[in-house]
Write the structure tokens for this entry.
Amino acid sequence: MNNEYLTIALGKGRLAKSTMKLFEKIGITCQEMEDKKSRKLIFVDEEHKLRFFLAKGPDVPTYVEYGAADIGVVGRDTILEENRNIFEVLDLGFGKCKMCICGPKEAKELLNSKELIHVATKYPRICKDYFYNKKHQTVEIIKLNGSIELAPIVELSDVICDIVETGSTLRENGLTVLEEVCDLSARVVVNQVSMRMENERITKLIYDLKDALNENPEFN
Ligand code: PRP
């Protein structure tokens, strides 16, 4: 944490792009970040005393919990999965998608049975919470790091617990949504100490972002 600058961690990728567009609407631009060739990791906006850095999505809650970033922007999936001690303060509305249980349509029957179900996922915590605490069902969770849709096709698992946005990955692979776990979108998270120590600046920033979201419906 830094007394002069507020540090903001952004999850790399689409969310970071939309987030910077939203910041532009409140007069905060960070030209340096636009340079695709640059290997620079941290960007400073001297005028507003802000520092931005890009990190892998799952690392954003970690930076925020430890105070290396005062504020973070990351998907709700990552927040739920990482389960860090941070405040979630604003739903940005973009990056909308759903966490779902998916598989071949024949697996629907299995999901309603008492049989042991094998579930492949990048999100073992979310998956465990859904099956154990909500459905009271015994499952074997198989952790994967990507291309989760492959698992039922090659019979590594019966179903998957994964993010569905447009549904095209499922369709192109002969899979379907069997159950919905929860809604997801981009969220602003804040370090708990920063929220007290820098309350005025952080609260103003959050309200400005909120107003910008209301004035610019394209973000929804
Ligand atoms: C995500 C998710 C699905 C896909 C869903 O994967 O895990 O595979 O997007 O999007 P759709 O419903 O619009 O097809 P991502 O592209 O992040 O890569 P990954 O498979 O490596 O996790």
Q: What stands out?
A: The longest helix spans residues 199-215.
